Amino acid sequence: MTSRKPDEHLARNSRLRLVRPRALATARRAVTNRRTRPAPRPPEGTPPRAELARQARTVLADAVRIARWAALDAEPRTAAEPRRRTFLDQERAAAALDLTPGQIRAGWDRARLAGLVELHGGTARPGWRLHAWDRDDSAVLRGWVALFDAWSLVHPAPDGVAPGAVAEVVEAVPQVLSLLQLSAGPVVVPALLDLLGQRVDELREERCEVPVEGATDGTATATPAGPDGRAALLDWALEGLADVGALTLGEGPDGRQATLTPLGNWAVWVKLEQICVAAQSPAGNIEQSAEDMLRGCAGLTPGPARDEYRAWLAARTLSSAVAELIAVARGEDALLRGLAFEALRVVGAPAEAEVRAAAEEISLRPYALLWLAEYEGADPDDAPEVLTREEATWLWVDTAAAVADHGESTLLVRHLESAVQGTVPALLDEVRAVGHPRTVQVLVALAAAHPDPALAKAVRRAAFQVHTGGA
Fold first, then answer.
1. Residue range 4-43, pLDDT digits in tens
2. How far is it, in rounded angstroms, from Cα 117 to Cα 129?
3. Can you tell me the distance from the alpha carbon of 328 to that of 354, in angstroms, rounded to the nearest whole number?
């Protein structure tokens, strides 16, 4: 039996179900049609959410300081001075925050991966999580989970190891984390190494791959040189997870051991249970701001949500209400962007001028064009046909960001079917090219959620390429 490169396998076996573009309109509403069911209780001994959020804030404290400093440093100092176009002045940041350049680089990287900052062209902007950091425990926990999912991007892999071997270990790490979670205490590293080896062998057997002796081309069949190589990769994985606050490493009576932190234990449980950690807001939002009103409607089905929109609009002048909704849509929370345009559909004709103006803004253009198409009489299911391929891809990523932030992982996997591209490789190529500021976080979340190992590996590779600026 011959080995097969993962990309060849992916291109041959991972065709997306071809759907009409109208599926994008359905995807816009995915997060408002979530299943309602009682949330499972966390394991006994799990700290309260407020305590978990406090621990997450501690892990990301430097990243938050750097993100806030960068936001202030980007502001013009005089009316005539243009906004800075650099991502981060590391020397100025190090001097201002009393951190080393290495700490600045690491903190900036974490801030990006946790959604505290977003890159728009040549400008870094504060992410919506940064704005909510001090008051919203759910935003904090989701930011930390995004960093937890991206641990392999935070901690560089050892030099001289085939990329395929690194990918195998990343794929096998969830099994290691599950053992740590089930053990509810420290586990010696040799036991974790045995489990890692078994899982890697299982993954190869599932793919019917035969290791190629001496392979160094980065395919999944390339292996580290002997047990020491795999042990080094396990050390790398454990240190990477420790870097993001998911576990601690120490010496025990039987040698080196790993223990999940309360944050890591909670995160593994959340992923095993596949629950959503976003808080549900109650109805009755007439006196709230547009942002709080939309958050309150996020858990409602479309009918009750429209009733809330109508009641909220009736208590305001339409011009001010439309302006407030557009302002929310310009924010970083993709879920609120979609909901804002749902509320604008209730407004109707009085919103037309503002929506046409919004169509000139990149982040609002797909939503505005869909609104205008429906306003001019197009069937809502056919309205997505007005979007160009690039606009549809941008909307796909934006919707995926909303699902990743507020929905269940199964919804994110299901969202793949709404892509207009025919195959996963084609989708990844166009997603990388479209330049959405949340591309890395979306791809990392999709890779963490998808059950197909080959597809998940290709998505992780694409996330790494976007993160490092590769093609």
1. 444 444 433 344 433 333 433 434 444 444 444 455 677 7
2. 8
3. 13
Question: Which tens digit of pLDDT belongs to each residue from 334-391?
Answer: 999 999 999 999 888 888 889 999 999 999 999 999 999 888 877 777 777 888 989 9
State the number of CA atoms in the 13 A half-sphere of 328 facing the CB: 22
CA distance 170 to 165: 9
Give how far Cα 422 sits from Cα of 5, 11, 198, 445, Å.
Answer: 20, 10, 35, 21
- Is 124:88 a contact under the CB 8 Å cutoff? yes
Sheet of 255-260, strand order: 187-188, 255-260, 247-252
Cβ(64)–Cβ(23) below 8 Å? no
8 Å CB contact between 397 and 442: yes
Distance CA 275, CA 39 (A): 7
Helices 137-149 and 262-273, packing angle to 10 deg = 80
The dihedral built from the CA positions of residue 452, 144, 439 and 336, taken in this order, carries a sign that is positive
Greatest pairwise CA separation for the chain in angstroms:
73
pTM of the model: 0.61
Helix (H) or strand (E) holding 146: helix 137-149
Residue in 126, 118, 224 with CA at minimum distance from that of residue 168: 224
